[in-house]
Amino acid sequence: MSDGHQRYRYRLNIPVKDSTVTPPSYYKAWYELRRDAVLIDEGQLVGIETPKEELIKRVLGFESELQAIAVVGMGGLGKTTLVSKVYHDDELRKEFQHHVWITVSQSFKLDEILRDIIQQLFDETKQPLPHGADSTDSSKLKRIIVDFLLGKRYLIVLDDVWHMDGWDALKYAFPESNCGSRLMLTTRSSEVASTCTNESGGMIYDLKPLSFEESWTLFCRKTFLEKPCPTRLQKICQNILKRCEGLPLAIVAIGGMLAMKDKIRIDEWEMVERSLRTELEGNDKLSGMKSILSLSFNDLPYHLKYCFLYLSIFPEDYLIERTKLIRLWIAEGFVLVKESRTVEEVGEYYFNELVNRSLIQVIEKYDDGRIRRCRVHDLLREIILRKSLDQNFMAITSEENRSLPERVRRLSAHRTLENIHPDHNFSRLRSLFLFGGGGSFCFCVFLICK
Of 35-49, 199-213, 402-416, which gets the smallest average pLDDT? Predict the structure, then answer.
């Protein structure tokens, strides 16, 4: 690894190999929000009726084989909330003899999860735990589960499956008895969703953001407590809501923050509209949302962290050409050469991995199915933009932002170069990007740094 990459690796809080890491404080917020998602009253939800009906219909399908139903989408879309409402539906539960809900998470411990499954199965039937239920041997624990579930119809939810190792470690605990049993998963990973449904049959449910009408209903419900939005605040609120892009977690968090604002002081609302990035950093009411969205970034391997941070050079709402982005990564040295694969193929793999993790939104495809253009959700962009600035990974100059750090490594100029002082120290500048009016990409220059 180059010295430069090694320095960034420590700056980004990426542990070196064989290091011991204590889970950061944002995991506390993650667990609290996940628990709350299961407890939300359905009357408080918006846009859940149709997805719930579609999932229930599939869970209760006529297929007798064991099937997996994977709900996939970016963090904050409401996957856990939706699946919870399906799982707790009274009519659906009557069709299954046994029910288990397990949260897998990023750093799961297999023996603990298996013991939890056993505990739920035997508690539900009011039976004493069998011999060996406290074992740390995963094979023995799986055998107890398989023996219990054989010949029975069961519904098991695996919530928040991040990686293939989570699915691979658990799948053999669930026997095929041709009784119409179902596994339901929630995941941010398209790879996990595709693999589990291919191996077990079933379907992928790609959860979509709320429509603007649904978003507005939810926003007003949280912000104005079921009352209409005052006319004088409507335009400001609609502009703020657009930044949420239908993400329920963001709408609820920002609506809850705005509910504390004085409805008379329009200037306070205008300040939020202008400086949402600052609010993300400094407002405690948004810390949970930021933690959830940051989890996806923190889970990336170090080389993908650089590639994802690199997306912060583009202006807001910019449609990014896939091939151009990969070439930029290669030029920056972010794409590591691997045996038997060209650097372009490795770059393509990096790009697809970010798409699979629901970090990049596909906007346009070619006729043959290849991705042509993509973008980043506004709130994810705000998070990586802050991380980029904090780590001096890059800097942006625009009509709204005229300040530059003392030493700039990558500089992205949006619509203007007028505010760049000629005496500024650019001795460390490696890359320069210029975006013209309307966000059009004019050129980029890569400089040779000594």
Answer: 35-49
Beta strand pairing call for 395-398 and 371-375: unpaired
Least Cα distance to 179 among 121, 95, 112 occurs for 95
Q: Whose CA is closest to 292, among 79, 48, 43, 16?
A: 79
Residue 198, both tokens: 């291919």
Of the pLDDT bands very low, low, confident and very high (cuts 50, 70, 90), residue 207 is very high
Q: What's the pLDDT at 327?
A: 93
Cβ contacts of 125-130, under 8 Å, gap ≥ 24? 125/98
Q: What pLDDT does residue 432 have?
A: 82
Alpha helices, DSSP H only, in 66-163?
79-87, 90-93, 110-124, 138-149
204 DSSP β-pair partners = 70
Q: Which CATH architecture has domain 1-18+292-391?
A: Orthogonal Bundle (1.10)
Q: Do domains 1-18+292-391 and 48-206 have the same CATH topology?
A: no
In 25-176, alpha helices (H): 26-39, 49-59, 79-87, 90-93, 110-124, 138-149, 164-170
Q: Would you kindly state where each structural domain of the chain is located, as residue ranges?
A: 1-18+292-391, 48-206, 212-274, 394-450
Specify whether the CB–CB gap between 220 and 227 falls below 8 A. Answer: yes
Quick check: 6 pLDDT over 90? no
Under 8 Å between Cβ of 278 and 22: no
Tokens 């579930």 sit on residue: 149
CATH 3.40.50.920 correct for 48-206: no
pLDDT in tens, 214-269: 999 999 988 888 788 999 999 999 988 888 888 888 888 788 788 888 888 888 88
* Tokens matching residue 266: 């329009």
Distances (CA, A) of 374 to 76, 166, 211: 20, 29, 20
